[in-house]
Amino acid sequence: MLFRSLARIATFVSDRVRDQLKDRKSASELAIHLASQRRQFDSCVVFFCSSAGEYEQAKPLIKRIAKDPTVLCYVIFFSVSGAVFAKARNEKINWILAPSDDVFEWGTIFAALRPSIVYIVRHELWPAFLWTASQWSKIVTINAVVPSLLGRQAEWKESLNLFTKAWLLRFVDFVCVVSQTDKDFFNRHLGLSEEKVFITRSEEHTSE
After folding, report:
1. Separation in Å, CA 96 to CA 87, 89, 163, 207
2. How many Å separate Cα 135 from the centre of its chain?
C-alpha cells in the first residue's frame, strides 16, 4: 500500500516516525487474537484515543464500563505515547495501536471485535475508521471541543476545515461536549442538530 511505502521511506528520515511505526501491527496480525478475546464476552466497547492525554480523559468511563464482566473494553491508540503511558503505569486494559486508515484494515479489526459502541475521545476523526465503525455500532465522540485554530487561519482554509469536519461527523451518532460554547460551535458552525450534541462529562455516558 502507498501508506506503508511512504512510511518506510519516512523512517529513514525521522526517528519520531520510526518510533511511531515500529510496534504497529497489521490488522491481519491482530485479528485472531482479537477474535479469541471477543468470544469470551457478550459485548464489546471500543475507545479510540489519540495518545496518553485522551486516554486519561476517558479513563473514568473506561473503568466504569470495564467493571461489567460481560463487556470487553478495548482501547485503540493512534500514538505510541499512549501505549507507553499505559505500560509504564501497568494499566490493566486491552489495547492495540491503530493501523493505517484503510477500510480493509479497520474492517478486519471491527469484524474481530464486533463492538456495540465506539467512543472517539476528543478529535480522532479518520474517514475510513468512521465509515467502518458506523457499519458495526453507534459512534459517540466525547470531550469534543472547539478547534484551537478557529478564527486564526486563512478564511479559505478555515472553511475547508469546517466543511471536512462537518462531513466526518455525519458518521457520528452523538457528540458530547463540556460547555455551552462548544455545543454552540457544533450546532452553528458544523450544522449538527440540537438532538445530536450534549453538554456532559465523558464519565456520565455508558455503553447502554
Report:
1. 12, 16, 30, 20
2. 15
User: Across-strand partners of 47?
Assistant: 75, 119
> Measured between alpha carbons, how far is 118 from 83 in angstroms, rounded to an integer?
19
C-alpha cell of residue 189: 458552525
CA distance 193 to 70: 34
pTM beyond 0.85: no
pLDDT tens per residue across span 47-90 = 999 999 999 999 999 999 999 999 999 999 999 988 888 889 98
Q: How far apart are CA 158 and CA 149, in angstroms?
A: 9
Per the structure block, which three cell numbers stand in for 200? Answer: 456532559
Mapping DSSP to helix (H, G, I), strand (E, B) and coil, where does residue 56 land? Answer: helix
Check if the beta carbon of residue 119 is closer than 8 Å to that of residue 92.
no
Residues composing the chain: 208
